[in-house]
Amino acid sequence: MTHPLLLIQTGEAPEAIRAEFGGFADWFRAAMRLEPAQMRIVRADVGEPLPSPRDVAGAVITGSAAMVTERLDWSERCAAWIRAATAAQTPLFGVCYGHQLMAHALGGRVGWLPAGREIGTESITRLSPDDAQGLRELPPVFPAQTTHRQSVLQPPSGAKVLARSQRDPHQLLRYAPHALSTQFHPEFSAAAMRAYIAARADVLREEGLDPVALAAGVRETEDARALLERFAHAALTRQRAAA
């Protein structure tokens, strides 16, 4: 029996952005190059129940406007599920909120990013070679889309830090051979990134950031997107081989 890849949706794009570009599920499916039947969506943030980790090929955990430090009931249930999935060796990929939630679930510490909000296309620097999950294809420095105010402040014991940006030292973590997470957004297109900057322009100015310059610096991030695609197809292939 073949199982789909699970998308654990922990939030949704703002309404105006969703009306123009679609929602998170659309972005992730497009980024992973999956057919609809290959992906199962669960809206964990609205209380939809999660399946057994053994009933999915793997799971991707999305971003959210919520904060991991709020310890919301649905979020803590997801954290417990992550621990169970890790124990079951289910392939996992967390993104932004999902990145922070995985670190929290596995014993790390999450809080406000000391350097302040990170938003826009950032240069991500690899810190060490790593062959797991298709990471060998990543160049030493690559662009990725970012938008976050909280971050992983202390990775879980045993986690390996694989990449950083100027503001965030924990942009890419690997917890186990089939479990990794990114603070950056591999699912974001350049157009979606510009839309997020435009939607938050007033707040960004209040924080001393220049939304015009940030928007001008946005570029495509194919290497980051391909990392997510490789994870998804490796998880599906692994599941078929085990069936």
Describe this structure in words.
There is one protein chain. The chain is an alpha/beta fold and 243 residues long. It is built from eight helices and eleven strands. The chain has a single domain, classed as Class I glutamine amidotransferase (GATase) domain (Rossmann fold). A hairpin with a 7-residue loop joins strand 9 and strand 10 (172-176). Helix 3 (73-87) packs across helix 4. The longest helix has 21 residues, at 222-242. The mean pLDDT is 95.
Structural features:
alpha/beta; Rossmann fold; two-stranded antiparallel sheet; nine-stranded mixed sheet; 243 residues; 11 strands
What gap, in angstroms, lies between the N and C termini? 6 Å
Radius of gyration over C-alpha positions, nearest whole angstrom? 17 Å
The secondary-structure element order is: EHHEEHEHEEEEEEEHHHH
CATH class equals Alpha Beta
The level of helicity is 25-40%
Largest sheet: 9 strands, mixed
| Number of helical elements | 8
- Which residues form runs of ≥5 with pLDDT under 50? none
Structural class: alpha/beta
Topology, number of strands: 11
Strands of the widest sheet, in order across it, are 2-1-3-4-11-10-9-6-7
**Average pLDDT across residues?**
95
Using the alpha-carbon principal axes, give the shape.
globular
* Number of discrete domains: 1
Query: What CATH architecture would you give?
Result: 3-Layer(aba) Sandwich
